[in-house]
TrEMBL record:
UniProt domain FecR N-terminal: residue ranges: 13-53
Domain FecR protein: start-end pairs: 121-216
UniProtKB keywords: Membrane, Transmembrane, Transmembrane helix
Organism of this sequence: Pseudomonas chlororaphis
InterPro entries, alphabetized: FecR, FecR_N, Ferrdict_sens_TM
Pfam families in alphabetical order: DUF4880, FecR
UniProt protein name: Siderophore-interacting protein
GO molecular function annotations of the record: sigma factor antagonist activity
Key word Disulfide bond present: no
């Protein structure tokens, strides 16, 4: 958990005020100069402003002007997960800044998860896998520690993958449904040309896509510095994209194994122990740490049940003939 002293709180308050002013209207030349001076005064200021602006965006319909307060249109989804209602309220600048200070402070205290909670319509905790049924007939299977936000309107069905990975089983266009289905994540878009595909967000600028049925069109929001900026993937194909390398085909990726979490298991076939540990940490409470770096490349094969990962860890260390020690939620392998 993080904490804020008086100086950090002052920075948070100033960043919140600037975020509200930037969203309310364009700055005058004098205000712009004042902002640039404030940003240059302390290396913490740009980071604080970025976080405040992200948090303000995440607050959704808390806006200063009516024209900025248009609510997002999204279907009333039927899902085992209860979707949080969004309320539209207009606040004066001072009240808006106060709300933003509170939200930013909570974000600093609780980390990125607090911001994600505000942004997401549906999300899963570590170790959870859930299926969401959308109003258009599509379904989304959310992997562990994953989150999505819906932006359905009259022209398209857009889903923002904010964290983790998800499998999309898309209701096809035809009849009364004329809107394309698009998944946006990490600076790229995946448009359904068929029915079923998976998208995994690896960072704010990198994601991967795999086609389980039919085809998809993958494109970057801005042209790649090198390589292609768009690519059509057929069934069984996959690709990774980022702004530097573009959309790059992934050869030899086993999509059934990569989405084995849908069946309640993790499957590894001659994978390095470091990768196995990384995956265990996505699904298992606490954290597994390799205390001996020389073990990282040891190969692991096996099928581990998601509901028995503690047992899997015991089995794994026994088969590799290594030791593990548990202390306060941390499992050391050495």
């Amino acid at each position: 958990m993080n904490s804020q002293g008086p100086q950090e709180r002052s920075i948070t308050e100033a960043a919140a005020d600037w975020a509200v002013r930037l969203h309310a209207a364009g700055l005058s030349a004098a205000e712009q100069a004042e902002l640039e001076q404030w940003l240059a005064r302390d290396p913490r200021h740009p980071q604080a402003l970025d976080f405040a602006r992200q948090t303000w965006d995440a607050l959704g319909e808390l806006r200063l002007e009516p024209e900025l307060a248009q609510p997002r249109r999204a279907p009333a989804a039927q899902a085992p997960v209860v979707r949080r209602p969004r309320r539209r309220r207009l606040l004066p600048r001072a009240a808006s800044a106060a709300v933003l200070v509170l939200a930013v402070t909570l974000g600093w205290l609780q980390g990125p998860q607090a911001l994600l909670w505000m942004q997401a319509d549906y999300l899963t905790d570590k170790g959870q896998v859930r299926t969401v049924h959308l109003a258009d007939g599509s379904t989304v299977e959310l992997d562990s520690a994953s989150a999505i936000r819906l932006d359905f309107n009259q022209t398209q069905r857009q889903v923002h993958l904010l964290a983790g990975s998800a499998v999309f089983d898309v209701a096809p266009m035809g009849g009364e449904e004329s809107r394309p289905f698009v998944v946006e994540s990490a600076g790229g878009q995946t448009r359904a040309l068929g029915t079923r595909f998976v998208v995994g967000r690896e960072s704010s600028q990198q994601a991967w896509v795999g086609v389980l049925q039919h085809s998809v069109a993958v494109s970057l929001d801005t042209p790649a510095r090198q390589g292609v900026s768009e690519r059509v993937l057929q069934e069984g194909q996959s690709a990774r994209y980022d702004p530097l390398a573009g959309v790059v085909a992934l050869e030899g990726l086993d999509l059934q194994r990569a989405t084995s979490w849908r069946r309640g298991v993790l499957v590894f076939d001659r994978q390095p122990l470091a990768l196995v540990v990384e995956q265990l940490n996505r699904y298992r409470p606490g954290r597994v740490v390799l205390a001996d770096s020389t073990l990282a490349q040891r190969q692991v094969s096996g099928v581990f049940r998601l509901d028995m990962l503690d047992t899997a860890l015991v089995t794994l260390t026994r088969e590799l003939q290594v030791q593990h020690f548990d202390l306060a939620g941390v499992s050391l392998i050495y």
